[in-house]
Structures are given as structure tokens and as C-alpha cells.
Amino acid sequence: MKRRSLPKIMWWLGYGGLIPFFGMTFALLTDASIPFLETFHTGLVLAVYTAIVLTFIGAMHWWVSLDIQAALNGTDFSKLLALSLVPSMVAWFSLLLPFNIALFVLGVLIIVAYVADSVLLFDKIDAGYAKMRLHLSVIVTLLLFAAGVVTS
């Protein structure tokens, strides 16, 4: 199956998704408040945003497994479907932890999701996605760890 390169909009949206990570981490580092979110702890808002991102990352497995189901053997299909749920379940559980611990757990989960994707997903889709995910994963993990240090 011939793969198309990623459309520019995917690059814009992918890297644009970093804006909340930078904004909330900056707010935590400077002890600033975020307009309209003053009643919430910024660490919680960052953790919830990360959990949503991880749910999206997991959904990629679901989409790919359904898209290429005919080309997959039963084991690979089952692995992709199972991994579609793991990131969101662990991310949800991390929201029950104290903010600083949750941010570290979520940072580790971003790395684990990238490694799992490099094993099970990246060879099935455009190489540009893997490159973008590497950049995004490194940046997000560093920001989450910095935020975790500040909130401890």
C-alpha cells in the first residue's frame, strides 16, 4: 500500500498542540494564573490536557487497526486494539494522583506510548508521523517533568 505524506495541516495541528503545554508550564514556572481557569490548579489543567492527548494517541491504534485490518494477522490486530485503550486508562488513573506525581507519570506515559508506537504503529503509516511524534514526545515530556518539579 502506497503511503501519502502527511498534509501540512497535520504538522500545524500537531505542533500547535504544544501551545497549551508551553502556556501551562510557563504559568506553573512563573506562578501566573491562566485567564478563565483561575479556579483550577494549573497542574491539574495540564494533567487533564495531557490525558486527553494520550487518549488521542491511543485512538491512532484503533484507527490504524481498522483501516488496515485485512492486512493484519489476528495477533497484530489485537495488539493494536488493546494498545488503543491503555494510554487513556493509565492517563485517567494518573489524574487521581497528586499533581506533581501525575505529571511525572504522564511524562513517562508519553515516552512509553512513543516506544510502543515505534514498535507497533510507525511501520504501518507515513514516516513523517513518526518524526513529528518524536519531536512532540520529547518536548511534551520535558515540559511535563519541568512542571512536575515546580509543583512538588
Strands, count: 0
What sequence of helices (H) and strands (E) makes up the elements? HHHHHH
* Cα-based radius of gyration, to the nearest Å: 16 Å
> β content, as a range?
under 5%
Main beta-sheet strand count, sense and barrel state: none
Regarding quaternary structure, how should these chains be classified?
A: single chain
Uncertain stretches of 5 or more adjacent residues:
none
Q: How many DSSP H or I helices?
A: 6
Shape: globular
Mean pLDDT metric: 86
Distance between the termini: 49 Å
Computed structural class: mainly alpha
Q: What proportion of the residues is helical, as a percent range? A: over 70%
Q: Outline of this structure?
A:
The protein has 152 residues and is mainly alpha-helical. The chain has helices at 8-16, 18-30, 42-67, 74-94, 99-120, 127-151.
For the structure shown, list the relevant keywords.
152 residues; 76% helix; 6 helices; mainly alpha; globular
What does this structure look like?
This protein has six helices and no strands. With 152 residues, the protein is an all-alpha fold. The protein has a domain at 42-57 and 87-151. α3 runs antiparallel to α4 (74-94) and α5 (99-120) runs antiparallel to α6. The termini are far apart. The model has no long low-confidence stretch (mean pLDDT 86).
